[in-house]
Amino acid sequence: MYLHEVPDPARLLREHGLQVTAQRLAVLRAVSSRPHSTADDIEGLVRGEIGAVSRQAVYDALGILTEKDLIRRIQPARSPARYEDRVDDNHHHLVCRVCGTTVDVDCAAGRRPCLQASDDHGFVVDEAEVIYWGICPDCQKTARQKQSTRSRSTTP
Predict the structure, then answer these.
(1) Other C-beta atoms within 10 Å of 99: how many?
(2) What is the C-alpha separation between 44 and 84, in angstroms, rounded?
(3) What is the C-alpha separation between 72 and 62, in angstroms, rounded?
(4) Architecture of domain 1-88
(5) Confidence (pTM)
(6) Which CATH superfamily includes the segment(s) 89-156?
């Protein structure tokens, strides 16, 4: 489920036992419009939409919306937490080592096979988090351009 597919976000909040507030609605819209944004990014989007809002109100909204499984929090290594509205499947992420761009990647072997650990040690596994790391196409292009410029400037 993506939040942008939900016809009535206020109803969704109520169905999850949450009071409908301007901050929560604005946070939902921000996460939906810019998946994989950091809390600071979301704070800026919310402030742009509803005006004055405290950082704590945004963090509180992110916390409760994550707790109620309306949004998902991911935290790639060496990166701030990011939020997304794709919550109903076990997808993974691809992160650029240079610019931090983060994109969704469907599970390579189907809907939920990665939940079958080779040895679960008695755990009931309900989520797997896989993060693929690499260099995005834009950063690859920039690196090639820099290399080309260096090559031309060192050629006599």
Answers:
(1) 12
(2) 16
(3) 9
(4) Orthogonal Bundle (1.10)
(5) 0.81
(6) Ferric-uptake regulator, C-terminal dimerisarion domain (3.30.1490.190)
